[in-house]
């Protein structure tokens, strides 16, 4: 029997998103839902801006914030498959200048599982531009030290882990390419993600949804062209392996579909099924994510386990506040970006879900929004 969706329940999903945007919970969203490779929902809702002057379209280009980390993670896992890196290798063996003190003991595995013992920083130096990879890397080498041994706690790394992994990719690349070139040639190109870029490619700028944090994110993201407090997301030549990709929903959905299919799409093999299986296991046990434990306490929620694989967020088994909802299968995996961006793959139900929105939401409100929408998607699966 073919897996399908209940069309009436998908209509509830559409109505819910339309109501959200009409009420101003967020400005708009582009959504794609597939099952077994068949598209059930592909639609744009609402607008790109607070003034509702610019409707969103399927080809709207979003800054996807920390979903960028997913691209870095996959390329690191790919490098491990090719013998360039290893999960058990200390990052200081690849980057010797990072080798003093506790931080010299951090393995690639610790970086991928957000268990490195490094601090949760958004910038290595107050006020510095963050769009130049070399500058940020040097500042991290200079200023960022471990706060505890690797493996003791799970503390989400907004920046440092993925700067180090991006540098490890550069240093072990047989062709000596830049981070941007590696992403474009080894990921975006093979997957035909033609409307995706590291930095905001010039031809994508007319369709770009300028990030509006709406006071919900206290950290600024300055770029070297001085385009505003969050101008780094508008820099064409920015290289930020932790936060700097621009993407459309159709492209991000192709990335999710590659993962759903075990690492391959349309003949392009990015990862092996063995690596995907390893990466979507829970490697953080019952430990909470220290960042989200703090957020949970603010709302009176019970902190849940971190549920982190090798770079992936996982659904896990607890009934808890979760962006992947309460109904998705325990081995559902994906990634998210600050108050706006989400994709997940449910291997048991053969579903991939991709959602990019305009108008960044407060963290807990965002969790509640995505939990509701993810449950609407899953409850429509029959």
Distance between the termini: 10 Å
Give the helices and strands as they follow along the chain: HEEEHHHHHHEEEHEEHHEEEEH
How large a portion of the residues is in β-strands, by DSSP E? 5-15%
> Which percent bin holds the helix content?
25-40%
State the strand order across the main sheet: 2-1-12-11-10-9
What does the main sheet amount to?
6 strands, antiparallel
How many individual β-strands? 12
Dominant shape: globular
Could you report the average pLDDT, rounded to the nearest whole number? 97
Regions with little confidence, pLDDT below 50 for 5+ residues: none
- The total count of helices amounts to 11
Return the structural class.
alpha+beta
How large, in whole angstroms, is the Cα Rg?
19 Å
What does this structure look like?
Helix content is 31%, strand content 14%. It has helices at residues 7-23, 68-81, 91-94, 108-112, 133-143, 160-172, 179-188, 249-260, 273-279, 290-299, 363-379, and strands at 28-35, 38-46, 61-63, 197-198, 208-209, 245-247, 264-265, 268-269, 313-314, 333-337, 341-346, 351-358. It is built from eleven helices and twelve strands. The strands form three sheets. Strands 2-1-12-11-10-9 form a six-stranded antiparallel sheet, with helices on both faces. It has a four-stranded mixed sheet with strand order 4-6-3-5. Strands 7-8 form a two-stranded antiparallel ribbon. A hairpin with a 2-residue loop joins strand 1 (28-35) and strand 2. The protein is globular. Helix 1 (7-23) runs antiparallel to helix 11, helix 2 (68-81) packs parallel to helix 6 and helix 5 (133-143) crosses helix 6 (160-172). The N and C termini lie close together (10 Å). 50% of the residues are buried. With 382 residues, it is α+β, with helices and mostly antiparallel strands.
């Amino acid at each position: 029997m073919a897996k399908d969706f209940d069309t009436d329940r998908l209509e509830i999903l559409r109505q819910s998103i339309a109501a959200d945007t009409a009420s101003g919970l967020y400005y708009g969203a582009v959504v794609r839902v597939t099952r077994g490779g068949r598209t059930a929902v592909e639609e744009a809702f609402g607008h790109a801006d607070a003034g509702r002057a610019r409707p969103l379209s399927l080809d709207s280009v979003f800054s996807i914030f920390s979903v960028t980390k997913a691209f870095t993670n996959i390329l690191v896992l790919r490098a491990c498959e090719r013998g360039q890196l290893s999960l058990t290798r200390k990052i200081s063996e690849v980057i010797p200048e990072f080798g003093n003190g506790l931080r010299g003991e951090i393995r690639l595995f610790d970086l991928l599982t957000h268990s490195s013992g490094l601090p949760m920083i958004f910038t290595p130096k107050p006020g510095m531009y963050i769009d130049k990879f070399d500058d940020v890397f040097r500042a991290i080498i200079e200023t960022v030290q471990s706060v505890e041994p690797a493996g003791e706690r799970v503390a989400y790394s907004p920046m440092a882990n993925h700067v180090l992994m991006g540098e490890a990719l550069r240093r072990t690349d047989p062709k000596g390419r830049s981070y941007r070139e590696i992403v474009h040639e080894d990921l975006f190109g093979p997957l035909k993600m033609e409307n995706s870029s590291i930095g905001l490619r010039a031809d994508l700028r007319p369709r770009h949804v300028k990030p509006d944090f709406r006071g919900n994110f206290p950290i600024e993201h300055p770029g070297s062209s001085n385009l505003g407090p969050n101008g780094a997301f508008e820099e064409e030549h920015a290289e930020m392996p932790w936060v700097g990709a621009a993407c459309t929903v159709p492209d991000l959905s192709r990335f999710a579909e590659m993962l759903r299919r075990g690492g391959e799409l349309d003949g392009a093999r990015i990862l092996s099924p063995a690596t995907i299986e390893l990466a979507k296991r829970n490697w953080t046990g019952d430990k909470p994510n220290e960042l989200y434990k703090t957020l949970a306490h603010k709302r009176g929620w019970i902190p849940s386990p971190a549920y982190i694989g090798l770079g992936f967020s996982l659904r896990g088994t607890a009934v808890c506040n979760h962006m992947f909802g309460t109904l998705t299968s325990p081995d559902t995996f994906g990634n998210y970006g600050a108050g706006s961006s989400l994709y997940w793959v449910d291997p048991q139900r053969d579903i991939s879900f991709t959602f990019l929105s305009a108008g960044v939401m407060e963290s807990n409100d965002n969790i509640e929004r995505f939990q509701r929408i993810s449950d609407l998607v899953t409850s429509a699966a029959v």
